[in-house]
């Protein structure tokens, strides 16, 4: 799963308030060319939304974000998510996902947290909150000692269409997480075509760096 995720430079970070929006949202992402999604566990609708996407779009890489409690972790495994993420690094959560052979990407913001992640066998970490924590320059300096060890980062928080290329141009960055791709208001207003267009624009920006 890590190898598959490393092929996808943009991960949409989604907050779903109404589980009925799960399928049309996933369709909007797929229509734009994006087959990966992170549904955060911040709402009561998240478990059902994850289950619905898993059932209707089994080929989609389904991620669960903001996994911060044991109950949330169990729900994710029971649902069969492709990967999980968290804003921080909890060794118990990491081990739980590892015991169930499921990729987990915890959040880090300091050298000590990076080294803790490496000690747990992790090769992909979430840099969060990326903008507030010092931006691209901070990550460049923070990750410099660890790049040779093969660790990759997914900056999330403060990443947008205007600065995503700056993030993705960093060798240690494998992907960026973006909530702008489908905002809560756009989902509530069912602006599926707008979301599809935003996805296409983001993937086009990412493709420019690959050319």
Structure commentary:
This protein has 211 residues and is α/β, with parallel strands linked by helices. It has a single domain, classed as TIM Barrel, CATH 3.20.20. It contains ten helices and nine strands. The chain has helices at 2-5, 22-32, 46-56, 70-79, 91-99, 111-119, 135-143, 164-168, 184-188, 192-210, and strands at 10-14, 36-40, 61-65, 83-85, 103-105, 107-108, 124-127, 152-155, 176-178. It has a six-stranded parallel beta sheet with strand order 5-4-3-2-1-9. The longest helix has 19 residues, at 192-210. InterPro entries: Aldlse_KDPG_KHG, Aldolase_TIM, KDPG/KHG_AS_2. This is Bifunctional 4-hydroxy-2-oxoglutarate aldolase/2-dehydro-3-deoxy-phosphogluconate aldolase. Homotrimer.
Write the layout of secondary structure elements.
Layout: H1 2-5, E1 10-14, H2 22-32, E2 36-40, H3 46-56, E3 61-65, H4 70-79, E4 83-85, H5 91-99, E5 103-105, E6 107-108, H6 111-119, E7 124-127, H7 135-143, E8 152-155, H8 164-168, E9 176-178, H9 184-188, H10 192-210
Parallel strand pairs: 1-2, 1-9, 2-3, 3-4, 4-5, 6-7, 7-8
Could you provide a short overview of the structure?
By secondary structure, the chain is α/β, with parallel strands linked by helices. It is built from 10 helices and 9 strands. The longest helix has 19 residues, at about 190-210.
Tell me the name of the CATH class.
Alpha Beta
* Global morphology: globular
Strand content: 15-25%
Tell me the helix content.
40-55%
Count of folded domains: 1
Terminal CA distance? 25 Å
State the oligomer.
single chain
Q: Within the largest sheet, what's the order of strands?
A: 5-4-3-2-1-9
* Total number of strands: 9
Radius of gyration: 16 Å
CATH architecture: Alpha-Beta Barrel
Enzyme class: lyase
Family: Belongs to the KHG/KDPG aldolase family.
GO molecular function: (R,S)-4-hydroxy-2-oxoglutarate aldolase activity; 2-dehydro-3-deoxy-phosphogluconate aldolase activity
Pathway: Carbohydrate acid metabolism
């Amino acid at each position: 799963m890590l190898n598959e995720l490393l092929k996808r430079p943009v991960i949409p970070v989604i907050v779903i308030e109404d589980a009925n929006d799960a399928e049309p949202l996933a369709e909007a992402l797929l229509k734009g060319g994006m087959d990966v999604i992170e549904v955060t566990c911040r709402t009561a609708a998240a478990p059902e939304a994850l289950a619905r996407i898993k059932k209707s779009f089994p080929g989609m890489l389904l991620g669960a974000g903001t996994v911060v409690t044991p109950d949330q972790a169990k729900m994710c495994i029971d649902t069969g998510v492709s990967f999980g993420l968290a804003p921080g690094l909890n060794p118990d959560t990491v081990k739980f996902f590892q015991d169930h052979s499921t990729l987990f990407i915890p959040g880090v913001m300091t050298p000590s947290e990076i080294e803790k992640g490496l000690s747990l066998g992790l090769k992909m970490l979430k840099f969060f909150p990326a903008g507030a924590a010092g931006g691209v320059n901070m990550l460049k300096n923070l990750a410099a000692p660890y790049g040779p060890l093969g660790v990759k980062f997914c900056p999330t928080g403060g990443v947008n269409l205007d600065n995503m290329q700056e993030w993705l141009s960093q060798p240690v960055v494998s992907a960026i997480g973006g909530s702008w791709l489908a905002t809560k208001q756009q989902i509530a207003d069912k602006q599926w075509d707008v979301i599809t267009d935003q996805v296409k624009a983001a993937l086009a920006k990412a493709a420019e760096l690959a050319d």
